[in-house]
Amino acid sequence: MIALYIILIILFVIILTGINIYLLALYCHPDDKGWGNVVYCKILVVVGLTLCQAQALMVPLDVANESALLMEGGLDMQAFWTFLYITVLIMITILLPYALFLY
Predict the structure, then answer these.
(1) Among 2, 24, 70, 99, which one is least packed by beta carbons within 10 Å?
(2) Backbone conformation region of residue 73, classed left if phi is above 0, alpha if psi is from -120 to 50, else beta
C-alpha cells in the first residue's frame, strides 16, 4: 500500500509540474523573450504553483493514509506535512525575495 502511495505522489508531482510549465508558457508576457530570459524566476513560478497545488492535494492523501493505517501501515504524514511547510517557508522567506531583487 505504501508503494502505491509513493507512486501516486511521484505521478502527481510530474503531472502538476507539466501543467504548470504549460500555464507559464501560455500566460508568459511577450516581452520576456522566450525561455532563455530570467530562467530562475520562471523556475520559481513553476515550483511555487506546484507547492500550492501540492498543499491542496495533501489533504485527500492524508485522509486515505489515515484509513490505510487502520488496515496495515501507511506513510508518516507528519514528516510529509513538515517537509512541505518548511519548503514553502524557505521559498517565501529566501527564494522569492531574491527573485524579486534579481528580476
Answers:
(1) 70
(2) beta
pLDDT for the residue numbered 49? 95
What residue ranges do the domains of the chain occupy?
Answer: 2-102
Per-residue pLDDT tens over the stretch 20-79: 999 998 888 777 766 777 888 899 999 999 999 999 999 998 888 888 766 777 788 899
3-class DSSP state of 34: coil
Measured CA to CA, the distance from residue 73 to residue 94 in angstroms comes to 36
- Do 44 and 51 touch, CB atoms closer than 8 A? no
DSSP 35-88: SSSSHHHHHHHHHHHHHHHHHHHHHHHHHHHHHHHHHS----HHHHHHHHHHHH
pTM: 0.83
